[in-house]
Structures are given as C-alpha cells and as structure tokens.
Design brief:
Helices cover about 30% and strands about 15% of the residues. It is an alpha/beta fold and about 290 residues long. The chain has a single domain, classed as Rossmann fold (3-Layer(aba) Sandwich), CATH 3.40.50. α3 crosses α4 and α5 packs antiparallel against α8. The relative contact order is 0.13.
Length: about 290
C-alpha cells in the first residue's frame, strides 16, 4: 500500500494477524489522503476496545475516551470548532452496548460527524463474550449454550430516528467500502457506517467467507431517499444488504443551530475571552 500523510513512522499494532481492523485502518488512511484531508483540521474520537485503537495507529489528532463515550466528546469537539472534520469510531460493543444511549441521542442531535462502527459481532478486547450484535446461537466462553437474545439492529434504529446517513459495508469488499466511507465523510450531518469486519480469534462463526456468503450489494433499484424502503432493507434477514440505506440531505445539523453562533461564526477557541460576564455571574452567586 502506498504511504500517505497519515502513516506513523513506527507503529506496534496489537491486533491479531488477519484481523478485519487492519482493512479498515488501511482504508481510512487511503480515503483521507484521496480526500486531501487537512491533518490539522481532522480529529478522531474513540472509546475502548480493539477497534478504538485505530487513531493510535495513524498520524492524526485524536481523543481516546471512556468505554462507550466516543460520541459525546465528538459532538462537543465539532460544536466548539465547526471547521474540523470529526470521525467517531469504535466497535459494536463500545458504540451499541456501553454507548447505546449516546448512539440514540447523537442521531437525534444530528451533529456533522462520521460514526464508523467496527462490527465483528463479538467483544474482542475482553476475550470473546457476546456483543449486542452477536447472532442467536453464537457460542462463547460466557454464553456456553449460545446467545439467546435477538441481535441489536443499529441500522433499523438509526433509520427509525431519521438519521441523515445510514450505511453498511463489509471490509472484504474493499472498493465498495471505500466508496461508501468517502460519501459518509463528505455528508453534512450525522453519518453512520456499520462495518462488517471479522474477528479471526474469538468469532469463528462470522468469518470472511461467512460475510461474503451472507451479504449482497444494494443496486440501483434501491432509493436511499425512501425512508420506508430503507427501513425494510435494514430489517432483512438471511442475507444482509450492503450500501447506503438512507440519506437525508439538508437536515439541520446540531452545531449550526447553537445560539452561540447566531451572530458570530468564529470558532469558540478563537474568540477573545471576556472576563466581565464571568465576574458578574460570580458576584451574583455570592449575593
């Protein structure tokens, strides 16, 4: 792979050989280079887990936070400096499990961020227990008789909440994944991309071959502007559709509706600090 501006000179990667995270890492470095992304105006935000380590393996600004807490700081970072490109990325456990409540409300707010979720249907960092997206019957060291719960459907949830961009890709279909991820980053508003990526160590069920056999690409007959059709595709079982399910152009974004920007578009960190209002507030509190 050709080196890009986002390569680290020395990087000790902790993933297992064959891990699907490698494919996503390489794709992201290529995509950002092809989009001519400015490293000084790019921020990654992640939580905890194997997927959340991606920013540590790239030459980018990043905030690595608590388990399940990537979306709140990502929203805040974008709100305080609207000139930044903000990408929140973590695994299916981090985003849909520990971070499930934040996932719901990030969709409602519609900040202009890209949310990339590495979906390997297992917790890899903590050695193989079931995640929110694990298939029924999947056996783990914890769920020894197999998972009994229905898997969480992030795409159906996102479409039901009228997310402005909802997509799914498989890292093994490299060109297709690159195309969709590019569109997600360029989209104005909250963009969810659920990425199928095998965990070769702890998930022997959902392998590269399994994903190839159990997915198909959405064709031109699918209209991503049709929310009802998109919801139907998101609930399909047996074979999983890949592509852009739903896209709502022109939906108001969170940070552009904040009163702090009503009369001054300048990023908050560039504004001159005015201590008088703060002093007045302190005096009032002391009364």
């Amino acid at each position: 792979m050709e080196k890009t501006a986002f390569e680290l000179k020395e990087c000790d990667v902790a993933w297992c050989p064959g891990c699907g995270n490698f494919g996503i890492l390489n794709l992201m470095k290529e995509i950002l280079a092809e989009l001519s992304a400015d490293p000084q105006k790019l921020v990654f935000v992640s939580g905890i887990g194997q997927a959340a380590k991606i920013p540590q393996y790239m030459k980018v600004h990043y905030f690595n936070g608590l388990h399940g807490r990537a979306l709140p700081p990502a929203t805040a970072i974008k709100a305080t400096n609207r000139e930044l490109t903000v990408i929140a990325e973590s695994g299916d456990g981090d985003m849909y499990g520990e971070g499930g409540n934040h996932f719901l409300h990030a969709i409602r707010r519609n900040p202009d961020i890209t949310n990339i979720v590495h979906n390997n249907m297992v917790y890899g960092l903590t050695k193989g227990q079931a995640s929110p997206t694990s298939e029924k019957g999947f056996k783990t060291p914890i769920q020894v008789n197999g998972v009994i719960l229905e898997p969480f459907n992030p795409l159906a949830i996102a479409i039901a909440l009228d997310a402005s961009f909802v997509a799914r890709v498989f890292v093994g279909f490299r060109d297709h994944a690159k195309q969709i991820l590019k569109k997600a980053i360029l989209h104005k508003g909250y963009a969810l991309v659920d990425v199928f990526q095998p965990c070769v160590t702890f998930n022997k069920m959902n392998t590269y071959q399994w994903f190839r056999e159990h997915t198909y690409l959405l064709d031109d007959s699918h209209d991503p502007k049709d929310r009802t059709q998109a919801f139907g595709k998101a609930t399909e079982a047996g074979k999983w559709p890949l592509g852009i399910f739903y896209q709502y152009e022109g939906k108001p974004v969170f940070e552009e509706q904040l009163s702090v920007y009503a009369q001054d578009p300048q990023p908050l960190f560039q504004r001159k600090f005015r201590k008088e209002p703060v002093e007045q507030l302190i005096r009032k509190l002391k009364e």
